[in-house]
Design a protein that fits this description.
Blueprint (H helix, E strand, L loop, with lengths): L2 H12 L3 H15 L7 H12 L4 E4 L6 H12 L3 E5 L6 H5 E6 L4 E6 L6 E5 L6 H13 L1 E4 L2 E4 L5 E6 L12 H4 L4 E4 L5 H12 L12 H12 L5 H15 L11 E3 L3 H17 L7 H12 L4 E2 L1 H5 L4 H11 L4
Parallel strand pairs: 1-8, 1-9, 2-5, 5-8
Antiparallel strand pairs: 3-4, 6-7, 10-11
Helix pairs in contact: 3-11, 10-11, 11-12, 12-14
Length: 333
């Protein structure tokens, strides 16, 4: 039995097929559309990360409904949700929790912080100092939190969705590379179109607000995640992903300028690119990953991980432009 047949049999045993799940995913988009106007591409990227057990960084100017999008998604998913407003005076204990001495019993009790939830909204994450941002690392990577000498496993599924404002720099702390690398996907939230903005205004001046249905459960989500993990990807496409990642490290080997990238992406990026391509294929009802699936998610997975040179910044070259050039230069299998 070859690998592709074995993976398809595994999907059959799980009782979910990509095409069958398309109806559920359509319901998620329709339900979100009751509150969120447009932003279909942003929601799709969040779903890709969610189905791949990844985390998301949302970037956009204030007022684009980034927070509302995340809260709506959490409500539909039926998961526990906590919002943390990051500020410069925040301490690690404010998000992780702490141990408190109880005088009556003479023992320490653990007071768990807001990070003990399924879906975490880290609002304006770049406003918190580095020690608070680094407090997220263990939870994001290991799905656990250590308080004093005790380690607590987080309830699964667990997902961090962080927002940041790209135009305001006063009172902010740039996210370190180690933190950025933990985010599977970066979503750049655009302005709405004129027609979409008309709908937004009409929705908000309306006296009634829509009621959202809970479409998922933790068990259903984990089942979907397992199906995505078993979506077939050919070895030739794995090598294609490796070539794309390699082009960020050695651009001159692929006919690209050498001095525009200071540091390429890590192996975690190549893993996330494969996972995201699987999730994209699943969302679109495909039984296996195609080249176009990889290309569609490449920018979201790689752009925040690229460290550009001063020359590239001076020339106003963006990471997304470099990724487009890489996809044009790397040979398709």
């Amino acid at each position: 039995m070859d690998k592709e047949t074995a993976l398809k049999e595994k999907q059959m045993k799980l009782g979910i097929k990509s095409k069958k799940s398309n109806q559920l995913l359509k319901e998620i988009f329709d339900e979100t559309g009751k509150v969120i106007v447009g932003m279909q591409a942003s929601l799709e990227l969040i779903l890709i990360a969610f189905l791949s057990s990844g985390h998301v960084l949302l970037e956009g100017v204030p007022g684009l409904a980034k927070t509302l999008l995340i809260k709506t998604f959490a409500e539909i998913s039926g998961l526990s949700f906590k919002r943390i407003q990051f500020t410069p005076d925040l301490l690690p204990a404010d998000i992780l929790g702490t141990q408190i001495y109880e005088q009556r019993t003479g023992k320490f009790i653990t007071r768990k912080g807001p990070l003990f939830a399924n879906v975490i909204l880290a609002d304006e994450v770049n406003r918190a100092p580095s020690k608070v941002q680094s407090a997220l690392l263990e939870a994001m990577q290991e799905k656990q939190i250590t308080l004093a000498d005790e380690t607590y496993r987080l309830a699964l599924p667990f997902m961090v969705l962080a927002t940041q404002n790209p135009i305001e720099h006063e009172g902010t702390y740039e996210l370190p590379e180690a933190q950025l690398d933990r985010f599977m996907i970066k979503v750049v939230v655009p302005y709405p179109s004129k027609s979409e903005e008309e709908i937004i205004i009409n929705n908000y001046v309306s006296p009634s607000s829509p009621k959202l249905k809970k479409l998922l459960t933790p068990q259903k989500i984990q089942q979907l995640q397992e199906v995505v993990a078993h979506t077939y990807i050919d070895e030739r496409l794995v090598r294609y992903i490796v070539d794309i990642v390699d082009a960020t490290r050695y651009p001159e080997s692929y006919g690209l300028e050498k001095n525009i990238i200071q540091f390429g992406v890590s192996p975690r990026a190549s893993i996330d690119l494969a996972k995201a391509a699987k999730a994209y294929a699943f969302i679109h009802g495909e039984e296996y990953v195609k080249v176009d699936d990889i290309k569609e998610v490449a920018s979201g997975v790689l752009q925040h991980r690229l460290i550009l040179s001063y020359e590239a910044q001076a020339r106003e070259i963006h990471a997304s432009d470099i990724i487009t050039r890489i996809l044009e230069s790397v040979k398709v299998p």
